[in-house]
Structures are given as structure tokens and as C-alpha cells.
Amino acid sequence: MKFADYVRGIVVKSATSNEVFGFKLMGWYLNDFLVRLRQTGEFGGLGEPDLEMLNAAFPRLRFLQITRRDKLRQAISKARAAQTGLWKVQDGKSEVAEPQYDRALIARCLVETEEEEKIWTAFFTRINCQPFCVEYEDLCQNHATVIRAVLDFLEIKLPRRIRIGQPATIRQSDALSDEWEQRYRASGAVE
């Protein structure tokens, strides 16, 4: 299957009844994704600017960027997920290994988290686009309000009978996260 057909197929199969399709793309995969999309030749020529190519592949394209104010807590979550294999806490999912405090792993995850945000900042600057920004902490505290703001940004009207429910995933942060944060801060400087 050609990559262009794969992209079109995912859009068609994943779109909701109101023709909304979304996907998450981590910064580490952005350049490879753009290269592969460009190489198809089906979304514009080789010199086509990134934004025009993306708009050809994904009509009515909108960018939503989720960031986190507390980068250390983000790094701790990433370190735990890397150790446990549990990237989303959901019913029916369980850890494949017990997490162990590892300062070096947390430090590496902190650097990766900051680097990934820089990748996105550079991309949005290059294409001259301001994404709709959602901060993770706000999403956790005011889930329904943030979801309504996202829907407004996407120009999606919910039918009156529809209520915004609780998130499908469960927050991973717990007493162990608190302990790791205290240990990390006690062991050296943190910005």
C-alpha cells in the first residue's frame, strides 16, 4: 500500500459522522512524516511548502498543541511509562514492570520533553501558524471547559443532548510521582 493511500484510508476510516478526523503526532516523528507525505507526490510537488502540503492531505486542517507547564512532572510521567510500558492508564491495562526511581532517566526525559516542545515551536514558526494551545494542567482541572474551547476552535457544535463526559484515560500522577519529584529536586537544581 502506498503511503498516500494509507493516509487517505486512515482519514476515511477514523472520521466521525460529522467528518472530523484527528491524530496525535509527536515532535520526534514530524520531519519523517513530512518527508514521507512529500515523497508521495500526491499532496503537492517537492517544493510545496509544508502547510500547503498538509492542507492538501488533511482538508480543513487545524493545529492543537498540548503542552505542560510542569516539565518535571511530565518527565516523571514519561520515565514511569518507559519503565512500566503503561503509556495510558485505562481500565484493563496493567504495568509490565514495576517503576523504579532513576534520576538519570528522569533527567533524560526532561531534556527530551523540552527538545520536543522546541521542535513544535520551530515548526509553527516556520509555517507561520499559531496552534490552539491547551495546557495539560488546565485540561485536568477544567476538563469540560477546555473541551468546549477546543470544540469552539474546531467550529464543532455539540447537539444539546450531548454532555462532555469524563476523560477516557486516568491521570497517572500519584503519591509515587510526588515522591520522585521530591527526590529529584533534592538531588540537584531543577528549573
**SSE run:** HHHEHHEHHH
Beta-sheet strand percentage? under 5%
What do the pLDDT scores average to?
91
The main β sheet shows up as: 2 strands, parallel
- List low-confidence stretches: none
Would you write up a description of this structure?
The chain is mainly α and 191 residues long. It has helices at residues 3-14, 27-39, 50-57, 71-84, 103-126, 136-141, 143-153, 175-186, and strands at 64-67, 132-135. The protein has 2 domains: 1-61, no CATH class; 68-191, no CATH class. Helix content is 52%, strand content 4%. It has a two-stranded parallel ribbon. Helix 4 packs across helix 5 (103-126).
List keywords for this structure.
mainly alpha; 191 residues; 8 helices; globular; 2 domains; 4% strand
Short description:
This protein has two domains: 1-61, no CATH class; 68-191, no CATH class. The protein contains eight helices and two strands, in the order H-H-H-E-H-H-E-H-H-H.
Secondary-structure blueprint of this entry?
Layout: H1 3-14, H2 27-39, H3 50-57, E1 64-67, H4 71-84, H5 103-126, E2 132-135, H6 136-141, H7 143-153, H8 175-186
Parallel strand pairs: 1-2
